[in-house]
Amino acid sequence: MKWNFEGKTALITGGASGIGKQIAMDMVKSGASVAIIDLDANLGEKTAAELQQLTKGKVKFYQGSVAEKSFVDQTIASIFQDIGEVDFLVNCAGILRDFMIHKFDEKKWDLTIDVNLKGVAVVSQAVVSKWVEISKKKAEEKGEKYLPVLENPPRVIVNIASMAADGNMGQLAYSASKAGVVGMTLSMSKELNRYNIRAHAVKPTLIETPIIGDLLQKADGKFRNMYESKIPFGIGKTSYVSDPVCFLCSEGGYFMNGCIIPINGGKLDGL
Predict the structure, then answer these.
(1) Is position 51 within any domain?
(2) Which of 93, 116, 72, 89 is nearest to 27 (CA)?
(3) Is 82 domain-assigned?
(4) Structural domains counted in the chain
(5) Which one of 102, 175, 180, 233 has the minimum C-beta count within 10 Å?
(6) pLDDT in tens, 88-122
(7) 44-50: which pairs have CB atoms within 8 A and are 24 or more residues apart?
(8) H or E element in which residue 113 lies
């Protein structure tokens, strides 16, 4: 699909591979400048170079963890200075560490919650603080406490949750983290609408990415066969997530806020 993001800037966490890379690529092809935050330095630099070949706009990679607030605060300040005011924030960075409740693993739990849940909050706070600061400065210049909603430029946050937010066997921490993302998104949508900021989440089912692909090939492909039989439309492509995300950021999605969109492959009861 083709969108018009000329003159827009997108920040995508976890943008070096998988779903995040697809979103970054589609944004760039549609005219946006893109900033990527990812933990993987080699993959991040490689992806940024690939994306730069597709556009005359700006593409920049920042290496670090979304769970480290000092890094995030410094990086967001750099992005606003290096590339410009961010219009779209896509929180896609995430990890998967599986275990069941009776085999509770505190280290895996803490890491999953830190990256998948705290990371969304930390990055969103840093970006939103910039947006609110800009809005309040303009209001002060006009002698007002707040700008009228529509005098703020439209901005969008899209958080990548998961169908696992509804609960999945063996994914205690992951399901909890993604359910938290859904709840946080709904809170954001109510808190930020006065600034013309819309917040949404999408909940993908199993999507073909490099990490998931390796998992599905285990046991001579039996995992792949099992999941393909469970999801009516099969295992999804990354574009099936990117298209709804780009729509929510586009003019077509302007009149929508606080949407939690299942990308479920036709399956209505989890993965």
Answers:
(1) yes
(2) 89
(3) yes
(4) 1
(5) 102
(6) 999 999 999 988 999 999 999 999 999 999 999 99
(7) 44/15, 44/16, 46/16, 47/15, 47/16, 47/17, 47/21, 50/25
(8) helix 106-113
CA distance readout (Å), 100 to 35, 109, 168: 36, 11, 10
| Tokens representing residue 250 in the block | 């586009």
| Residue written as token pair 């806020």 | 257
pLDDT of residue 213: 74
Q: Is the pLDDT of residue 270 over 90?
A: no
Q: Given 174, 195, 227, 240, which residue is catalytic? A: 174
Return the structure tokens found at 188.
Answer: 């954001």
* pLDDT 10s digits, 143-201: 999 999 999 999 999 999 999 999 988 999 999 999 999 999 999 999 999 999 999 99
Rg, C-alpha atoms of the chain: 18
Q: Let me know if residue 27 belongs to a domain.
A: yes
Q: Which residue in the block uniquely carries the two structure tokens 């966490």?
A: 13
Domain of residue 138: give its range. 9-207+239-262
Q: How far is CA 59 from the centre of its chain?
A: 17
Whether 46 maps to a domain, the answer reads yes
Single-letter code of the amino acid located at 176: A
| CATH number of domain containing 94 | 3.40.50.720
174 is a catalytic site residue: yes
